[in-house]
Design a protein that fits this description.
Distance between the termini: 16 Å
Helix content: 25-40%
Low-confidence stretches: none
Number of domains: 1
CATH superfamily: Formyl transferase, N-terminal domain
Number of helices: 6
Bound molecules: 5-O-phosphono-beta-D-ribofuranosylamine
Largest sheet: 7 strands, mixed
Radius of gyration: 16 Å
CATH class: Alpha Beta
Structural class: alpha/beta
Family: Belongs to the GART family.
Mean pLDDT: 93
Order of helices and strands: EHEHEHEHEHEEHEE
Shape: globular
CATH architecture: 3-Layer(aba) Sandwich
Number of strands: 9
Function: Catalyzes the transfer of a formyl group from 10-formyltetrahydrofolate to 5-phospho-ribosyl-glycinamide (GAR), producing 5-phospho-ribosyl-N-formylglycinamide (FGAR) and tetrahydrofolate.
Catalytic activity: N(1)-(5-phospho-beta-D-ribosyl)glycinamide + (6R)-10-formyltetrahydrofolate = N(2)-formyl-N(1)-(5-phospho-beta-D-ribosyl)glycinamide + (6S)-5,6,7,8-tetrahydrofolate + H(+)
Enzyme class: transferase
Pfam families: Formyl_trans_N
Length: 203
């Protein structure tokens, strides 16, 4: 399974992917790492392992769609089977999303469809939720709105804060992502139409 990873920051999900590959828990190869931030830790992680890594500067392009076109031209060059958005903090334009439909996933720190967008831990606390977690979903034109492939769930305790929830969700999202990538590699997920997903063993 050839993976391209898009990340803007810390890169702990990329680290989890690289660890799983190195420890033989995931049969995949990271063929490219891409970032819109020059100092993203994800780029450093890739450089350390001689994985092709590219920073693409959004300010070098006239608008969002020009940036997305340039970014995805580079992504496509490395011929990934699957594109993983792991903390890529930009909204993608519909054209590139559609061109990669069914081949691009995102990990989001909430139990979708609850709490789309930013500050999901704050949103969960403000809503008085008793449960929270992380979701892996297919990327569609609707922000955090594509079909959910899998979720990991945690309980919210009465003394939880945004920070404590963020830490606990992060601990479950890494194994969740690896489990999804393994299932993808085994052919469990297929994307049939924008909002239609079936999950079965494809031989
Ligand atoms: C994670 O919380 C992920 O769910 C969200 O962005 C964060 C990325 O973390 N989409 P990292 O950069 O992988 O450490």
């Amino acid at each position: 399974l050839r993976l391209a990873v898009l990340a803007s920051g810390r890169g702990s999900n990329l680290q989890a992917i690289l660890d799983a590959i190195e420890q033989d828990r995931l049969h995949a190869q990271v063929v490219g790492v891409f970032s819109d931030k020059p100092n993203a830790n994800a780029l450093r992680l890739a450089h350390e392992r001689a994985i092709p890594a590219q920073y693409v500067d959004p300010l070098a392009y006239a608008d969002r769609s020009a940036f997305d076109t340039a970014l995805f031209a580079r992504v496509d060059e490395c011929e990934p089977d699957l594109i993983v958005c792991a903390g890529f903090m930009r909204i993608l334009s519909p054209a590139v999303v559609e061109a990669h439909a069914g081949r691009m996933i995102n990990i989001h720190p909430s139990l979708l469809p609850r709490h789309k967008g930013l500050r999901t831990h704050r949103q969960a606390l403000a809503s008085g939720d008793s449960e929270h977690g992380a979701s892996v979903h297919l990327v569609t034109a609707e922000l955090d709105g594509g079909p959910v492939l899998a979720q990991a769930r945690i309980c919210i305790d009465s003394d939880d804060t945004e920070e404590s929830l963020a830490a606990r969700v992060l601990r479950v999202e890494h194994p969740l992502l690896i489990a999804c990538l393994n299932e993808w590699q085994r052919g469990y997920f297929r994307y049939a139409a924008p909002q239609l997903l079936y999950r079965e063993r494809v031989l």
